[in-house]
Design a protein that fits this description.
78 residues; 3 helices; 49% helix; globular
Length: 78
């Protein structure tokens, strides 16, 4: 019996869950994880992928965020 890789997209069934997933990725400060989180949300919505790499510029990230119907916000760090 083998194992299969975990695919979070199938569990992100609501827009709220998808937004929380991206927010959690942003909190890590890991650019690669943020890029992957946008791709996961795209797949959860039935979109093949969004073109955001780990070294994408801010304009590209914002374009992907808007395309997914999300927005970025800032809070004061603890």
């Amino acid at each position: 019996m083998g194992t299969e890789p975990f695919g979070p997209a199938e569990f992100l069934t609501s827009e709220a869950a998808q937004a929380e997933y991206v927010s959690a990725a942003l909190e890590t400060g890991d650019a690669a994880f943020v890029a992957r989180s946008l791709d996961v949300v795209a797949r959860a919505r039935g979109i093949d992928a969004v073109a955001v790499g780990a070294n994408a510029d801010l304009a590209t990230v914002l374009q992907a965020v808007r395309a997914l119907g999300l927005r970025l916000t800032a809070d004061k760090a603890a």
